[in-house]
Amino acid sequence: MSWAIRSAIMAALISVALATSAVAAPFTHPHPLRHGIPSTEPPQVSAASWILYDETNDVVLASWDADTRRPMASITKIMTVMVALEQGSPTDLVTISEEAAKTGAQEIGLVAGETVTLGSLLRAALIRSGNDAAAAIAEHIGGSIDGFVAMMNQRAEELGMTNTHFVNPHGLDVGGHYSSARDMLIVGRQAMSMPEFAKIARARVLVFPDTPGGTARSATNTNRIINSYEGVIGVKTGETPNAGLTYVGAVERDGRRLFVVVFGSRGERAHFVDAIALYDWAFKDLGILGPIATGNSYTAAAPRVQPSPLIVEAGLEAFVHASAQGLASSPPSPPGEEEVPGPVAGAEVARHPEPTPSLLETLGYWLLMTIGRADG
């Protein structure tokens, strides 16, 4: 394109721009294209309510109906074992009562009159999900089932679990025994902060003392994905006719610790299917959104070939996306707080428009575009 033609085009553009403001609109200088983070939705799961939490970045990644009260089944035993560790010693000797031995359903096979350590009972309750072990723990620590249940409810109140009420220490179906996904996240995090609890929760096999008659007692962890899903470190499964399948899980991978809680999953091993789907989504699609939602930088935890770690700073576009996805919502109250706020909507983020370019900038932009097309 000759200089004369280019000059003519420039003059024509200036004439059109100055003629009237209405005509100038089509020549608006476009904003530069931003490479934002694509929107991503949580996977479809069978659970009636659930919550997914990134503890490393202190943010709820996603949740559904997380404050609704539902039967909790054997995830009850998280509180049972936690209270027992707080109030007793694993070396305590416990004599098994007739009532504890005949609790029923899932059991380790306690025999009335035998004496075992509290530590053995804690492992049986958490790994095998033994209802008889949970009852024996309750009688030893609380003096009776009712006495221990009162301790459980007191602890729940201290932790701010406003949608939880315990009636027994094992989780068998009974009226008035309920919790919520958010509340079980609170107690799950608190329990996993205790080294002894965390050690038991990640064990794959339980070897229990033989019965007085010499019968061997052992079991594998009811948390089946502890053997098959990378990074699983706990916590507890549950299942009853009223509750369906319930699960409180924890995973550590790539420098992050995630917790998931599902209530009312339906289908064969559906609580594991739901948990894995949520974990996969968090690791694959939300790798940096946790830090972004909290306004922090993201640093790769795994060793890298490059001399410096990958760092991604939070930007406005990313934060807007995080808010839209609910990732900027306030996380559940940390363990120890006495008040739990109600559901919090995503934080409002005011998006500031780009500065309006000057007339000369606009004309220059379109001139370069025209020249580029002609030369090309």
Write the layout of secondary structure elements.
Layout: H1 3-19, H2 21-24, E1 49-54, E2 59-64, H3 76-87, E3 93-95, H4 98-101, E4 115-117, H5 118-128, H6 131-142, H7 145-158, H8 181-192, H9 195-201, E5 205-208, E6 217-220, E7 232-240, E8 244-253, E9 256-265, H10 270-285, H11 289-293, E10 298-299, E11 311-312, H12 316-324, H13 359-375
Antiparallel strand pairs: 1-2, 1-9, 3-4, 5-6, 7-8, 8-9, 10-11
Helix pairs in contact: 1-13, 3-6, 3-8, 5-6, 6-7
Notes on the protein architecture:
This protein is α+β, with helices and mostly antiparallel strands and 376 residues long. The protein has a domain at 49-286: DD-peptidase/beta-lactamase superfamily (Beta-lactamase, 3-Layer(aba) Sandwich). The protein has 13 helices and 11 strands. The chain has helices at 3-19, 21-24, 76-87, 98-101, 118-128, 131-142, 145-158, 181-192, 195-201, 270-285, 289-293, 316-324, 359-375, and strands at residues 49-54, 59-64, 93-95, 115-117, 205-208, 217-220, 232-240, 244-253, 256-265, 298-299, 311-312. The strands form 4 sheets. It has a 5-stranded antiparallel beta sheet, sandwiched between helices. The longest helix has 17 residues, at 3-19. The termini are close together. The model is unreliable at 20-39 and 297-354 (pLDDT under 50).
For this entry, give a set of tags.
376 residues, elongated, Beta-lactamase, two-stranded antiparallel sheet
